[in-house]
């Protein structure tokens, strides 16, 4: 990878700048508590630990137009549950706001704030996410030129339009953007297919809040994409500190 060709960086958010699972666990716990108080008829359904996941999957099937809108899907799933339990579906918005407030409460990985400060001094940064997190509520908005979400754009990674939109916001050509993310298919394969460059963040399972037993690695070089049969050149790192070191070098 020729770093002198990089003129902007786009960054994924969940599991790249902070662990997503703890946010989701807190948010769903807050949602359950609120429903038990304000929509008590849902308690029978919610006795099943998989209920929220089941309703979300159903919402995806029933509302394909919301495929890129995670907030919309969550609202639809809550509304469907309320209707099934003969509770007022108008409660869905208040329930979602409780969920969303906790979903926005993130804990940055230890190196992120310092790394973003260093990177933003060198290059314009753009947040590019399929999720519904907010860089300003996360306390890091000052480092970014702007943010693009799939819900607003109407297109999600790995579609090329998502990466091209990030390049446009940064004011550079797609070939001049290094996209940084944790998902191999959505972030790495997608960025390279869109004509850009990619850095794959492979953190430890403990950092992500998941079960241990998986060992990350890092280094420069291609990796094979089983879906296309092609090699995908990328930078592999375990945290943003290593990205700063690579670009600085």
Automatic annotation (TrEMBL):
The signal sequence is none
Kinase as a keyword of this entry, yes or no, is: no
Q: Where are the transmembrane segments?
A: none
Pfam families registered for this protein in UniProt: Hydrolase
Q: Which domain of life is it from?
A: Bacteria
Q: Which UniProt keywords apply?
A: Hydrolase
Q: Molecular function terms in GO for this entry?
A: hydrolase activity
The record, for NCBIfam families, names: HAD-SF-IA-v1, HAD-SF-IA-v3
Write down what this protein is called.
Hydrolase of the HAD superfamily
């Amino acid at each position: 990878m020729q770093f002198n060709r990089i003129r902007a960086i786009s960054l994924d958010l969940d599991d790249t700048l902070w662990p997503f699972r703890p946010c989701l666990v807190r948010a769903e716990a807050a949602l359950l508590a609120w429903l038990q108080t304000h929509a008590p008829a849902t308690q029978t359904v919610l006795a099943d630990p998989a209920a929220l996941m089941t309703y979300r999957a159903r919402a995806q099937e029933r509302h394909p137009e919301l495929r890129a809108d995670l907030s919309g899907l969550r609202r639809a799933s809550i509304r469907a549950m309320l209707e099934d339990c003969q509770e007022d579906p108008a409660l869905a918005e208040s329930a979602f706001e409780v969920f969303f407030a906790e979903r926005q409460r993130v804990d940055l990985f230890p190196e992120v704030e310092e790394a973003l400060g260093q990177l933003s001094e060198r290059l314009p940064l753009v947040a590019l996410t399929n999720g519904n997190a907010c860089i300003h509520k996360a306390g890091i908005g000052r480092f970014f030129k702007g943010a693009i979400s799939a819900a607003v754009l109407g297109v999600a990674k790995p579609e090329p339009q998502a990466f091209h939109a990030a390049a446009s916001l940064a004011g550079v050509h797609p070939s001049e953007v290094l996209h940084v993310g944790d998902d191999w298919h959505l972030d790495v394969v997608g960025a390279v297919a869109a004509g850009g460059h990619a850095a794959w963040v492979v953190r430890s399972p403990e950092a992500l809040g998941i079960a241990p037993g998986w060992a990350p690695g890092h280094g420069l070089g291609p990796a094979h994409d089983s879906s296309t049969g092609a090699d995908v050149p990328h930078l592999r790192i375990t945290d943003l500190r290593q990205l700063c070191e690579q670009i600085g070098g």
